[in-house]
Amino acid sequence: MDTPNLPSSQIFEAADSPWGASVQPAGCPACKRVYLIEATRLGQACPQCARGKLEAQPAILRPEAPELLAPFRYNLNSMRPNLEKFTSEVWLRPADLEAATLLQRATPLYWPMWLVDGDVTGHWQAEAGFDYQVKSSQESYGSDGWSSRDVVETRVRWEPRLGQIQRHYDNVITPALTEQKQLLKLTGQYQREQAKTYQPEQVKGAVLRIPDLPPQNAWPLAQPQLDEAAEAECQEAARAQHIRNFTIRADYQSLHWTQLLLPLYVTWYTDDDGKPRMVYINGQSGVIGGPRIASQKKGWQMAGVVLTVAAVLFLLTLCLGAIGLAFPPAWALAILLGVVSLLVACGAIIPAAWPAQWNRTQGE
Amino acid sequence: MTTSWQPSPDFVPLESALPGITVYAPRPKTVQADAPQTFECPQCGATTKFDVAAGGVACEHCGYTATPKAQAVGLQAGVMEFTLETLNKAEMGWGVARKEMHCNACGADMTIAENALTATCPFCASNRVNVREAPADQLRPRFLIPFKIQPQATRELAKKWLGEGWYHPSELGASAIVDRFTGVYLPFWTFNADITSDWKAEVGHEEQESYYDDEDKSWKTRTVIRWNWESGRVRLDIDNLLVCGSTRVSRVLAGRLEPFNLNDLVSYAPDFLAGWQAQTYDLTLPKAWELGKADMRERAKSACYSDTGSSHVRNFSMTSDFAEETWRYVLLPVYLAAYNFEGKVYQVMVNGQTGEVVGQKPVAWWKIWLAVAAMLSPGLCLGLISLPLLLAGGIGLVPLVFAAVFFVLGMVGAFTLYRKAVDSEAL
Q: Residue A257 pairs with which residues in a beta bridge?
């Protein structure tokens, strides 16, 4: 089938205030992400990379305001205990990885998803699965003779089905950001039911992320979502409990693209090398995600302290050994102290090796 | 909707649960016609019937023959699962029996036997096949083995069979039994199952051990049994276990008719039944499966005992998990006869595929008792001779031992013969 007619986006100049809110387009020269921000945020660090400063710039976006917005359910201060737990789980953490720092740098941000409405008209084919039950049995023999127990097992009977479809679908979720999958992996899913009609005053004080997947680029992702919705309905129409090998040849018409804005707190800390590391907080569920990098520098320092203690103990061992030449019972103490110093020295491996091992488990 | 799209002609529309979506499914396979079918020769209009020699429906008057439209399926004949739906329907039996049929040939109304699948009009002798409405399509006869043995051959087979065995009445072979065989398609259920059995038991292993005999002052060996708790797993794949679906014939005799070669199974066609009697099942699927399962679990138990590797087993227990259980409903060819002999009725059956003859045969009991006496007499006589010899000077000890051996052998032989004779008359 042909690619359907898709709505085009529009260029908004730096001074424009789209979507009825007192925001203007701005971008980060470091990560190239584009936002709608309040003028007071110009010159501040980019909320999603912390490497560049936000600068006013034109932006390409759909002129219609978002259709829905899921509001923040947590304010930042209520997140403090969770953030303290999040940071305290890292034993040798960088000095910058502290709850207070993260709270101080947190920026409320709304990120977009496309909501696609459209008509699907065409024909479909699939294997529909119908549950049925079979009776089996288990026979036991013992001192009392035979006893029997019925076992009922559910199986699926697959049958071909085909037909035509002419259905309308509303608000089919489609990615609007290239990093959507990663964001959802870090902060978990959102509940769409909590979304409300967009009001400009709801986004006051927040940064709005602009889609980097316009409808033209998002359509290859939207079509499978529409097909998936059609598949579920074809299964229902066939009164089947399962469906597989679903194929559809359809025209997609009357497509309507709007946005759903989802709440997110974004904050950051710097690691040993001064590189900013992003931490995300789902504004709806409170789930915190992001890499927690341990400090190798702190690890070396602690290992050094432990080795110093071991060296002191070893010196004491030598002293006791020397005393043992004149007073033999001191040998026993010297040997004991020697073993302890050896064990302490071995213990230095732990802080030295732990940060690298921990960091292997932390994705970017 | 896209108007150019058309479903394949093999598909039919179904009711959709959602507006805006149409649903098509493969056209259901044609269900066998419920209406009785009359067999008339298309050439001369005479009554036709299935002829074993011709392998099809034949007309005795003009020589017309037609091969049945059936497919040789053999062991590939489709099997059914034990779905709850089928089992529930099978509980209802064959449904309401059609006890009256109208003859299209002469217009007469006739009464037919409750379990009969076929009928011959008593007025015009036309042959009809009457497949009644089943509670589920699966419960219709779907496969059968056609008769391979011609009706005329049963006479010779029966004569030969009646002549076998010396302990039957001599006049049996000359009786009129050979004229009374009736070819009947009997209903049978076939069952398949994979059985995994876990067993546990105390298994005794014989071992030789040496011991010092204080009385003989010497070392000797003796056999002792060491008992160990052991367990194992046995997998058994049972295919095509047959259970007769008719309660109107002897289960014992029906069992002795086996084996049937199921490689000869063909798909059901009414032509095979034309002019022959055929019965529907009256032993329902669940009841037949219980019998089949009982047989299967005993086989599994035997397999587990064999798996112990010892003849000394105690505290035996096992659990068998049945899997992949399937069934078929088939019609198998059998010739039946019943006859009177000295006021008693005896049944005889001939396997219509292999010619195997089984049945009850009257026993001339005087021959049995004479044979029993002959078997026991050597031991008794030798014993009677040896006793005075033993009293006379001790030389009778050896004959006495021989007498005991002969007597035991005679008892075993007599018992075996007696059982055989009883079985011969039993149903």
A: A116
d(CA B255, CA B295) in angstroms, rounded, equals 12
| Nearest CB neighbour to A162, from listed B7, B293, B322 | B7
Q: Which portions of chain B are predicted below pLDDT 70?
A: 1-3, 30-36, 91-117, 119-138, 173-180, 393-394, 426-427
d(CA A345, CA A303): 9
- B81 contacts in chain A (CB < 8 Å): 134, 155
Give kind and range of the element (H or E) at residue A52.
Answer: none
Rounded Cα–Cα distance for residues A349 and B208 (Å): 64
Q: Between these two residues, B336 and A267, which has the higher pLDDT value? A: A267
Q: How far lies B325's CA from each of A317, B211, B236, in Å?
A: 79, 55, 12
Burial call A129-154: b when 16+ CB within 10 Å, e when fewer: beeeebbbbebbbeeeeeeeeeeeee
Strand partners, B215: none
pLDDT the model gives residue B156: 83
Confidence tier at A195 by pLDDT (50, 70, 90): very high
Residue A50 has pLDDT above 70, yes or no: yes
Which pLDDT value is given to residue B320? Answer: 94
Sign of the dihedral defined by the CA atoms of residues B276, B281, B282, B283, in that order: positive
Determine, for residues B23 and A238 on separate chains, whether the beta-carbon distance falls below 8 Å: yes
Cβ neighbors of A316 (< 8 A, separation 6 or more) are A337, A341
List Cα–Cα distances, B406 to A13, B121, B399, B412, B415, in angstroms.
122, 64, 10, 10, 14
CA distance A286 to A106: 13
Chain A nearest C-alpha distance from B251 (Å):
22
Query: What is the model's pLDDT at position B94?
Result: 47
Looking at residue A271, what is its pLDDT?
A: 92
Helix/strand/coil for B130:
coil
Q: Does B35 touch chain A (CB under 8 A)?
A: no
Polymer length of chain B: 427
Nearest 5°: phi and psi at A241?
A: -90, -20
- DSSP string of A268-314, one letter each residue: EEE-TTS-EEEEEEETTT--EES-----HHHHHHHHHHHHHHHHHHH
Cis peptide before A66 (omega within 30 of 0): no
Torsion of CA A212, A216, A218, A222, to 10 degrees: 160
- What is the Cα A38 distance to its own chain's centre? 26
Amino acid in the structure at residue B388: P
Amino acid identity for residue B150 in this structure: Q
Closest CA to B301 of B226, B378, B199: B199
B135 versus A180: the higher-pLDDT residue is: A180
A133 residue type, one letter: Q
At A215 the three-state DSSP class reads helix
Residue A134 and residue A155 in contact, taking contact as beta carbons nearer than 8 Å: yes
| Distance from C-alpha of B139 to C-alpha of A12, rounded to nearest angstrom | 74
Cβ atoms within 10 Å, residue A360? 8
Does residue A77 belong to the interface with chain B, where contact is any CB pair within 8 Å?
no
pLDDT of amino acid A329: 87
Neighbours of B137 (CB within 10 A): 13
